[in-house]
Each structure stands twice: as C-alpha cells, then as structure tokens.
Write a structure and sequence with these properties.
This protein is an alpha/beta fold and 329 residues long. The chain is built from 17 helices and seven strands. Strands 3-2-1-4-5-7-6 form a seven-stranded mixed β-sheet, sandwiched between helices. The longest helix is centred in the first third of the chain and has 16 residues, at 30-45.
Amino acid sequence: MGLSIASAGDNTLALLASGPERVFAIDLNPAQIACLELRVAAYRELTHRELLVLIGSDPGTNRRQLYGRCRSLLSADARWFWDHRGAQIDRGIGGAGKFERYFELFRRRILPLVHRRRLIARLLMGGTREEREAFYREQWDTWQWRTMFRMFFSRTVMGRFGRDPSFFRYVKGNVADRILDRTRHALTVLNPAENPYIQWILTGRHASALPYALRPESFDAIRHHLDRLELRCVSAEEFLGEAGAANIDWFNLSDIFEYVSGDHFRDLLVAVCRSARSGGRLAYWNTLVPRSRPGALAGTLRPLIDVSSRLHEIDKAFFYTAFVVEEVI
C-alpha cells in the first residue's frame, strides 16, 4: 500500500502500472484532485489516442466532446471545476495548471525572441552527447538566451506569473542560475529527443517521447488497476494522523517539503516514518530548497545516496535540483 501526492496525477497514475495493492492519492488543493479525477475518467472511457488528444500531447479539435464523454464519471466538485474551464479543455488539459501556463507564455512570447523554430526543431532532434554539447555551446547558449532565461526564471518574475510567492519563502541564493544549470543538463547530458518534458515546454506537445503514464504500453495496465486508487482532498498531516502506525509501504511525496519550514519538515518526516512499515521507502524532490533526512532521525531513516544520485542524473523532470530516496529502518 502506498501514499502518493496527487499533484495533477501523472506520477500517481504511473505508479498504478506496476499493480500496487492500493494507492492513496492525496492533495490539499481541490484543483489537483479535479485534474486527477478527469485523468482517471479518461483512462476509463477513452482510447489511448483519445487520451493523448484530451491531454494535449497530440493535436485535435474535439477535446470538449472527449471531456463530455468523461464528465459523468466525475464527482460534482470536479464537474463544476472543469465545466468552467472550457478554454483550457480546448487547449488540452495537460496545460491547465498555473505553472504550465507560465511555460506556455515562455514558449509563445519569450523563446521566439532568442531562438527560431528551426533551431528549436534541431535541438529536439538530439543526437550523440558530443553532438548535443557542441550544438548547445555553439548555437543555443547565446548571451541572449542566458539573459532572457535569467530574467524570465528569476524569483521576481516567477513569483508574479508562475508560482505563488510563498513558494520562495525558504529559498536562498540565485534561483535562475540553478534552473539554468539544470536546463543545460537536460539539453546536453540528457537527450531532448527522449525527453517529453523538454518537448512539452518548447513545443506545447509531445513529439517523439511520452511521460511514462501516457505511453501506450502503460495504458492498459493503468486502466486495469484504477479501482485500486483512492483520492482524498486532505493534507499530508491529516492523512498520516488517520493512517495509523506501520501501515504504508512506500511514499511518493513530490516536492511538498519545499513549502514548509525546517521544523515543519522534520515533524512531517517523523509522521511519515511513524506510518511506514520497516523497509518502506520515501521518494521526494527538491526544487530550490534542500531537504533530506535530518540527523535527529538517523536511527529511523536511512538515506539511499547512491540510488538518489543515479536516478537524479537521469531524471527527465530536469527542473528539480535533487531527488531523494530514503528507507525506513
């Protein structure tokens, strides 16, 4: 049995493909629950091709009709949420979030000021690592690119248009330079031709790669296990308080520790460990705030440093600065 932060649903749904006994998907934000509800309904009702159109991965003009086929499977709250977002359905529900709209602004208005479509297309072709590094160094990494990037992904601009300003409450140092460094990694060390997130950010769709949950080989497995998924609109603290001791095998905690103080992080980690079975594993991301097991929990939680480093190196969701895996002793 596992606990997954719902977010918009991609990681939670991907976990279903392996056939877990039960997955509790929780989120304090009802909008995230509504997003996951619609994805669940789409897996139940649509074909794989239709799912990709509704998400926005593939082009299509019938997204409202596809939503209409899924609508009866939604709760009243989720129906209300999506009934008032027809324009976002028309563009593809995968781009409905605030940060996704921020990337859309980047793609449509900002990126064309420094790079033409032909150059973007060449970037997405990938190539060998040597070819990618040479292309980035000689054609992509211009002073215009660096200047634009540092402005658009600065703390000030992101706090106004892309993220709630509270997101940066515990962030120290230069935000844009850290994101630029991770972007360079994604465009050179990783292969853009195999990265669905780079493709989405730069083109607004998935061209030659799909996230795990949207791949054709995952579709039937996820659909088959949807009845093992339970959605709850609650905080992590509330859910863990109800879960009891030693009941949960694994935790996908997304980046929830990014938004809390160091003391709150420690207390929440204690609650997670209390509800976990021995040998249970935690996985979570750091975006800009470094979080990992504090020394006070050394007897309870074991960092899996090699696993964390290896997975972070190949993580296609490149904008995170760390991926943390820890094991309950």
